[in-house]
Amino acid sequence: MELAKSSGPLLDASWLDYTLLGVYFALVLGIGFMARRSVSSSLDFLLSGRSLPAWVTGLAFISANLGALELLGMTANGAQHGIPTVHYYWIGAIPAMVFLGLVMMPFYYGSKVRSVPEFLRRRFGPGAHLVNALSFAVAQVLIAGVNLFALALIMEALLGWSIPVSIVVAAVVVLTYTTLGGLSAAIYNEVLQFFVIVAALLPLTIVGLVKVGGWQGLVDKITASPGGAEQLSAWPATGLTGIGDATLSVIGLVFGLGFVLSFGYWTTNFAEVQRAMSAKSMSAAKRTPIIGAYPKVLIPAIIVIPGMIAAVAVPEIAALKQGAAPAGVEYNNSIMYLMRDLLPNGFLGIALAGLLASFMAGVAANVSSFNTVFTYDLWQSYVRKDRPDEYYLRIGRLATVGGMVVAIFTAFIASGYGNIMDYIQTLFSFFNAPLFATFILAMFWKRMTPAAGWIGLVAGTLAAVAVDRLVAAEVLSLSGQGPAFVGAGAAFVVDIVVSVAVSLVTKPKPEKELVGLVYSLTPKADRAHSVTGEDAGWYRSPTVLGVGVLGLTVVLSLLFI
What we know:
The protein has 561 residues and is mainly alpha-helical. The protein has helices at 15-36, 42-47, 54-63, 68-81, 87-90, 94-110, 116-124, 126-159, 163-212, 214-223, 238-241, 246-268, 270-277, 282-298, 300-313, 315-321, 334-342, 347-383, 389-410, 420-444, 450-472, 482-505, 524-527, 542-558.
């Protein structure tokens, strides 16, 4: 993941660009200092005191996902595969986000748990809780490392900053505002960062389309390029999945991405769910992921399309598609080359701020969820119980620093992947796919036992790791994101089978202990939300909002069959 070396930085940033970057850094730090005044307890620091309105948590929900995965990974996928990349948004996000809001948030929010692992502790006991808390903590520092490493390479390539300096600057800024203001600072900064990211990518998309002759010009150029017209149709996406058979490719997308990976990520990933848990009411919590789904369904227009433009307008990426690129050129570089070729000074500063915003939003989301799980689910549960709240507030701040330090060391693991999406999806197949299987059984099958909770998780994770190793040893012939899709499917199936088998030979918890944790045993009134006051109005109905965004997704999908 390294740009071809040149005699200097790719971008000729001026004083104006650096001034804009300075203003952006001042804003995010200022938000951290202001948020500190509202932090008086560990709950304030780690969950914002459950006091935030739905529009804030909704935008933060989607902004927390706009890290390196989006800006580098999705533009890289857009350049390499074209329109099929929209599956990560329309199949791979929207249905799961609506499901989270309508079905799962009533259990998360209603049970008043402080984290996703804590839900598993109440449902199963310490075994599944400890397995999930440890695996989640590892996953978050790995993914935070992705964002840090990607940011460092961008700053080195675009501005000439060294990788160590770039990592330290980004880490210090994120650490400052998250350590001062906790989750509130992270969330309000994520709202700011959402608008900064859009302000950066929208002009880049418009200028790029003008350069290639509008949408029809882009279509004509892609049709004539390697990969051809197949890159303009969402199905069967054989290039994206790495599965040559069209039918199997569709099955892999629908089951591996659309069901297992998607639902596993959006419904159980505490880095996202934490934003909804910080909402001020049940209604706001249910609306949070659904509000975030509306910008999510439209984001491909400013992320995937720039990647497609880079594939035909940037000489290095065009040469890469033809197999004749200079050494060091990779699809991950697409958006950086596009910025180099299209943006003048001033606009360049906004674009750089957008890149910084995306990476810092991703790192902050990972670190703020890591510190909560570490403090409540690991330290308080297994190391130091029954201490004063001030003690856990201090541990939360120390965990923030420790998580960032570890993320710096994990950053270089991402360097072995030419397309960062391959790495991210592999991590999701390890950690999220088996967790989703456990959650689905746990919430809808009261017979599932505590032993099955942790044994199923371990078995599912090992199944995904086994698929990854078989691909690495060339026993299985898969490319692209195919290994992750197959690994996720294997993790899900193995987790379900093992969990059912273990449940049938072990003892379940008494039904009275599962009220509020299992769908069939939880009264409908306990899952309901208020429809008065700030929650009144049909336009605030989670169901109406959910049906609306699903309908919009269907309409957009039909345009690219």
